[in-house]
Amino acid sequence: MSVKKLGVLISGGGTNLQAIIDSIKMGEINGQVVVIISDNNKAYGLERGKKEGIRTEFIDYKALSPAEYNKRILEILHEESVDLVVLAGYLKVLGKEIIEDYKNRIINIHPSLIPSFCGKGFYGEKVHKAVLEKGVKLTGVTVHFVDEGTDTGEILLQEAVEVLENDTVDSLQQRVLKVEHRLLIKAIKMLCE
Fold first, then answer.
1. Share of the chain above pLDDT 70, in %
2. Residue 110: active-site member
3. Closest CA to 170 of 117, 132, 141
4. What is the average pLDDT across 99-115?
5. Of 123, 156, 169, 178, which is least surrounded by CB within 10 A?
6. Distances (CA, A) of 13 to 4, 46, 96, 106, 176
């Protein structure tokens, strides 16, 4: 079985990226991260990639038109013959041309049980804050295919996380993140097989 080439898009620290890299090293995933792309030149995930000898690319969306920005992402994915695109804490919405070119080959991880606490404006700490404000007893993690909507693609995997009475945004985020790492790896493994 041929090794699948992964392109990972990030905006921040890259803890999900690190989980992917570690799982590949342990032989859990029949894949290889061939490129890491970020919209944030200070994203620590770029450093994680450089340490592993992986191609890293910062694309400055402020310096380009949306069409040019998306075209550049697509060029890089094609240059590396990427089979599967993984959005791992990537905070931009991908352009239609990327989604069409990689139909059912782009996945995203979201820190809630979609369709709750998702869509425009729901990312990172904002999700956990909304969960706590609403007083729900369960939140969780969803891995889904990316389509042209925001968090509207077909759901691949979900796992619930209990919201504890004394939870803060930070404590809830940390528990959800542990599940994110595990569930994202499970989805990538499944798609690489």
1. 99
2. yes
3. 132
4. 96
5. 178
6. 24, 8, 26, 20, 16
Given the residues 110, 128, 144, 181, select the one marked as catalytic. 110
* Total length of the chain: 193
Beta bridge partners of 85: 7, 106
Helix or strand or coil: residue 8?
strand
Quick one: CA dihedral 156, 187, 158, 47, positive or negative?
A: negative
Of 6, 7, 4, the residue nearest 38 (C-alpha): 7
CB proximity list for 26: less than 8 A, separation 6 or greater: none
Give backbone dihedrals phi and psi of 77, rounded to 5 degrees, phi first. -60, -40
The two three-digit tokens of residue 185, written as one number: 């790896």
Domains of the chain, first to last: 4-192 (3.40.50.170)
Query: Residue 105 has which token pair?
Result: 């080959």
Q: Is-cis flag, bond preceding 66, omega within 30?
A: no
Chain segment 51-80, per-residue pLDDT in tens: 999 999 999 999 999 999 999 999 999 999
Tell me the C-alpha distance between 64 and 104, whole Å.
Answer: 27
Sheet holding 31-38, edge to edge: 55-58, 31-38, 4-10, 84-87, 106-110, 138-145, 155-162
End-to-end C-alpha distance for the chain, whole angstroms? 8
| Separation between Cα atoms, residue 106 and residue 84, nearest integer Å | 6
In this structure, are strands 4-10 and 155-162 parallel, antiparallel, or unpaired? unpaired
